[in-house]
C-alpha cells in the first residue's frame, strides 16, 4: 500500500470528526463502509485529518479489538478501511475513544468503578484510583497504534466524566475525614480527586509516548474552561466540542480559554442542532457552521466539525456537501488566522482557584459556574472590545501588557492573587470589578462603604435616560471621598424616587479601579438589555479610552485584534441573527451588517490596508496617529490586515 506524508496535529488546521458510540444494537458494523466512501469525503472536503469512531461511552469497540470489548457484530473491519484510505491520501487518522466513562468496563469489573457518597459503584465512570488505565485503556490504545497505525486518539469522556470517588480505599489514601460539601475538608478531598485525574492523564499519555513517540493524544476538554489550569500533562494538542445550541456564544468563551495555554488547539462544532431531549435533530447549514468557524479562526485556533455515523459506521455523505463549503471558507482564511496571537487589550479574569471552590463537579462546570463570566464576555464583545481570557497562571509577567482587566463577579480571591491585581493598578493599570459580592474584596481600594449585605431583588439600571432591568444581587454602597459615582439604580422601572449608586471609579496609585455593584454579567447572559451593554461600555471607555482598534456602526460584530506574520490582523465576525435562540435549530441566512467605521492607532502611515480573505485593498486615511477606514458591508467574517504598521501606545 502506497502512503503519503501526513501532517502532525500540531500543524493541522481543519478536520472532520465522526462517531456513533457503538452499542448492543450494532450487529452489522462495516456493512456500508467502503474505501470509495472515505475517498469521496477526502476529495470533497480535503481535511488535514479525520477522526472516526473507535470506542464510545458504552464501552463497546466498533472495530474487532482483541484487547477491549467488542460490539455484537461485524461485517468488515471499518477501522482498517478508514486507516488504509486516509494513509493513501496523506490524511491523518485519529480515533474517538472514551476514557473515564466506560459503561462496559464497570459492568464487567465493578471493582473498577468509582464509588458515590453511599459507597455504591458508579454505572458509568471508572475510578481514577483503580486499574482501569493499566488494564484496559493503555493496552487498547497501544493496539490501535501497533495494529492499525492510527496517528492518535481524541479521548472523550475524560475530565468532564470524572467524578469524586468516595470509595473506602480512596478515603484511606486521603487519610483524613472527607467532610461534607461546603466545608474546607471536603474541598481538600475534591482537590485530592482532581490530582488523581491529573496523575491518571499524565500516566496514560506518557505510557503511550514511551511506546510510540509519534502517537498523538488529546484528552477532550483537558486544560480548557472545564479544567482551567496550567498544562501539566504531555498531551500533543488541546481540543473540545462546544455545545450544539447557542454555539456562537460557546465558541466565543471556549476559544478564549484555550488561546493562551501554550499548546496547539482546535474546537469542534456539532454539525447538527437540537435540544438534548429532542431526537429529531437537523443538520446545520453551511452559513451557520461558517460563522461558528469564524469565531474560532478569529482566535487563532483550528476547526473541526462533528457528524454522526450510522450504526454500521457508515456516513451520511450528503452532509459532506455542506462541509465542503465550510472547508473552503476556512481554507481561504487560514493564512491570516491560524496560530495568530492576540494583541493585549481587555483581559477578562478567570480566577481558577475561585472557580474550583465554586464548581460542584471535579471539572464539568455545568451548574451555572460560568454564567457571570460568559455574560460579561458577551457584553464586552457586544461593545466591540477585543477580549482575552486570563487564567491565574497567565498573569505573572503579563499583567502590565493589558490596559484593562475585568473581574467578572468572582466572590472570593486568594490574598496573593488580590495583591497581584492591586500592584498592577498601582503601577498604572485599570481594574473593573463587577458584582455585588465582588465589591467586598476591594472595598478599601474602591473607597466605598458597603451598606449591609448584597440584596436579592429587582433593580433597574439607568443609562442616558433609558432603564433596563437588572434582577438579581446588588450591593448598596456609600462612596467615600475620592470615589466618583457613575450611574444609578432604581427600585422601579421609572427614574423617580431614591436611587442607589450603580458604579464608581477611584484612583489607586497611578491607575484606576472601578466597581459595578450589580451582577450585570449574570443578567446579561440570561436577560440581556441594551441598557446593560451601553452602561458597561461607558464604564470601559472611562477606564480604557484609547483602544488600539475602535469599530462603530453595529453592536453585532466581534472584534479580535491579532498579530500574525508581522502584520496586524483585525478579525470582524458578524454575530447578528438568531444563533442564540434555542427555538431555532437551523438558520441559513445571516443578515449582513455595515457600514462599519474603523479607527486604528498607528505610529505612522501603514504601507497597505487590505481585506482578507481576498486581499482587496481598502481605502483609508491617516492623520493624528490614526488609520481610518470604512467597511461598507460585513457578511460573516472578514479580516482587516494592516501591513507596515506600528501601533501607538495604548
Short overview:
The chain is an alpha/beta fold.
Keywords for this structure?
TIM Barrel, nine-stranded mixed β-sheet, 650 residues, Rossmann fold, eight-stranded parallel β-sheet, 27% helix, alpha/beta, Immunoglobulin-like, 3 domains, 35 strands, globular
What does this structure look like?
With 650 residues, the chain is an alpha/beta fold. The chain has 15 helices and 35 strands. A nine-stranded mixed sheet has the order 15-14-16-17-26-25-24-20-21, sandwiched between helices. An eight-stranded parallel sheet has the order 7-6-3-2-1-12-9-8. The termini are far apart. 51% of the residues are buried.
Topology of this structure?
Elements: E1 14-19, H1 35-45, E2 49-55, H2 78-89, E3 92-98, H3 103-108, E4 113-115, E5 121-126, H4 132-147, E6 152-156, H5 168-174, H6 184-211, E7 216-219, E8 238-241, H7 247-258, E9 265-270, E10 272-273, E11 282-283, H8 286-297, E12 302-308, H9 319-334, E13 341-342, E14 346-350, H10 352-358, H11 371-381, E15 387-391, E16 404-408, H12 415-426, E17 430-434, H13 443-446, E18 448-450, E19 455-456, E20 460-463, E21 466-469, E22 473-474, E23 477-479, E24 483-490, E25 499-508, E26 511-516, H14 520-527, H15 530-543, E27 549-552, E28 557-564, E29 567-574, E30 596-601, E31 608-612, E32 616-617, E33 621-623, E34 626-631, E35 637-643
Parallel strand pairs: 1-2, 1-12, 2-3, 3-6, 6-7, 8-9, 9-12, 14-15, 14-16, 16-17, 17-26
Antiparallel strand pairs: 4-5, 10-11, 13-28, 18-23, 19-22, 20-21, 20-24, 24-25, 25-26, 27-30, 28-29, 29-35, 30-34, 31-32, 31-35, 33-34
Helix pairs in contact: 1-2, 4-6, 7-8, 8-9, 11-14
Amino acid at each position: 500500500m502506497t502512503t503519503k506524508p501526513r501532517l502532525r496535529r500540531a500543524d493541522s488546521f481543519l478536520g472532520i470528526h465522526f462517531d456513533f458510540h457503538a452499542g448492543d444494537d450494532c450487529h452489522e458494523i462495516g456493512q456500508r463502509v467502503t474505501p470509495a466512501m472515505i475517498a469521496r469525503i477526502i476529495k470533497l472536503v480535503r481535511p488535514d485529518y479525520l477522526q472516526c469512531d473507535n470506542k464510545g461511552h458504552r464501552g463497546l469497540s466498533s472495530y474487532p479489538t482483541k484487547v477491549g470489548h467488542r460490539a455484537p457484530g461485524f461485517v468488515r473491519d471499518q477501522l482498517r478501511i478508514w486507516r488504509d484510505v486516509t494513509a493513501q491520501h496523506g490524511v491523518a487518522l485519529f480515533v474517538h475513544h472514551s476514557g473515564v466513562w466506560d459503561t462496559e468496563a464497570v459492568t464487567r469489573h465493578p471493582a473498577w468503578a468509582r464509588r458515590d457518597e453511599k459507597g455504591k459503584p458508579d454505572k458509568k465512570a471508572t475510578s481514577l484510583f483503580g486499574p482501569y488505565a493499566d488494564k484496559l485503556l493503555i493496552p487498547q490504545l497501544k493496539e490501535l497504534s501497533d495494529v492499525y497505525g492510527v496517528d492518535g486518539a481524541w479521548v472523550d469522556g475524560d475530565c468532564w466524566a470524572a467524578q469524586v470517588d468516595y470509595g473506602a480505599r480512596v478515603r484511606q489514601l486521603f487519610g483524613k475525614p472527607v467532610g461534607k460539601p461546603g466545608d474546607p475538608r471536603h474541598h481538600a478531598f475534591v482537590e485530592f480527586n482532581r490530582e488523581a485525574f491529573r496523575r491518571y492523564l499524565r500516566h496514560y499519555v506518557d505510557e503511550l509516548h514511551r511506546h510510540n513517540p509519534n502517537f498523538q493524544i488529546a484528552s477532550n476538554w483537558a486544560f480548557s474552561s472545564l479544567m482551567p489550569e496550567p498544562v501539566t500533562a504531555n498531551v500533543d494538542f488541546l481540543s473540545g466540542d462546544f455545545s450544539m445550541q447557542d454555539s456562537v456564544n460557546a465558541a466565543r468563551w471556549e476559544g478564549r480559554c484555550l488561546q493562551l495555554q501554550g499548546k496547539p488547539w482546535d474546537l469542534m462544532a456539532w454539525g447538527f442542532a437540537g435540544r438534548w431531549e429532542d431526537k429529531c435533530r437537523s443538520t446545520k447549514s453551511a452559513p451557520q457552521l461558517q460563522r461558528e468557524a469564524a469565531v474560532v479562526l478569529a482566535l487563532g485556533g483550528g476547526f473541526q466539525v462533528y457528524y454522526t455515523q450510522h450504526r454500521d459506521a457508515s456516513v451520511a455523505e450528503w452532509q459532506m456537501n455542506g462541509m465542503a463549503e465550510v472547508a473552503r471558507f476556512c481554507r481561504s482564511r487560514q493564512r491570516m488566522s491560524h496560530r495568530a496571537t492576540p494583541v493585549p487589550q481587555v483581559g477578562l479574569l478567570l480566577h481558577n482557584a475561585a472557580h474550583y471552590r465554586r464548581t460542584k463537579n471535579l471539572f464539568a462546570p455545568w451548574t451555572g459556574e460560568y454564567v457571570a463570566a460568559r455574560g460579561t464576555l458577551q457584553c464586552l464583545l457586544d461593545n466591540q472590545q477585543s477580549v482575552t481570557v486570563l487564567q491565574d497562571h497567565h498573569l505573572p509577567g503579563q499583567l502590565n501588557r493589558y490596559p484593562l482587566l475585568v473581574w467578572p463577579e468572582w466572590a472570593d480571591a486568594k490574598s496573593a492573587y488580590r495583591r497581584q491585581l492591586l500592584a498592577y493598578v498601582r503601577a498604572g493599570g485599570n481594574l473593573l470589578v463587577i458584582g455585588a459580592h465582588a465589591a467586598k474584596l476591594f472595598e478599601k481600594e474602591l473607597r466605598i462603604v458597603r451598606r449591609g449585605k448584597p440584596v436579592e431583588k429587582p433593580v433597574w439600571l439607568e443609562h442616558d435616560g433609558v432603564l433596563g432591568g437588572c434582577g438579581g444581587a446588588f450591593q448598596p454602597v456609600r462612596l467615600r471621598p475620592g470615589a466618583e459615582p457613575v450611574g444609578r439604580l432604581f427600585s422601579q422601572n421609572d427614574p423617580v424616587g431614591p436611587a442607589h449608586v450603580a458604579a464608581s471609579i477611584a484612583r489607586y496609585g497611578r491607575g484606576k479601579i472601578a466597581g459595578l455593584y450589580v451582577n450585570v454579567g449574570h443578567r446579561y447572559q440570561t436577560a440581556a438589555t441594551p441598557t446593560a451593554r451601553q452602561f458597561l461600555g461607558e464604564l470601559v471607555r472611562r477606564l480604557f479610552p484609547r483602544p488600539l482598534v475602535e469599530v462603530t456602526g453595529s453592536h453585532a460584530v466581534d472584534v479580535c485584534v491579532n498579530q500574525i506574520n508581522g502584520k496586524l490582523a483585525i478579525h470582524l465576525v458578524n454575530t447578528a441573527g438568531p444563533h442564540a435562540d434555542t427555538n431555532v435549530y437551523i438558520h441559513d441566512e445571516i443578515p449582513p451588517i455595515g457600514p462599519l467605521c474603523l479607527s486604528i492607532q498607528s505610529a505612522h502611515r501603514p504601507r497597505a490596508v487590505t481585506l482578507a480573505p481576498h486581499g482587496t485593498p481598502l481605502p483609508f486615511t491617516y492623520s493624528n496617529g490614526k488609520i481610518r477606514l470604512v467597511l461598507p458591508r460585513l457578511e460573516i467574517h472578514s479580516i482587516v490586515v494592516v501591513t507596515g504598521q506600528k501601533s501607538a501606545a495604548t
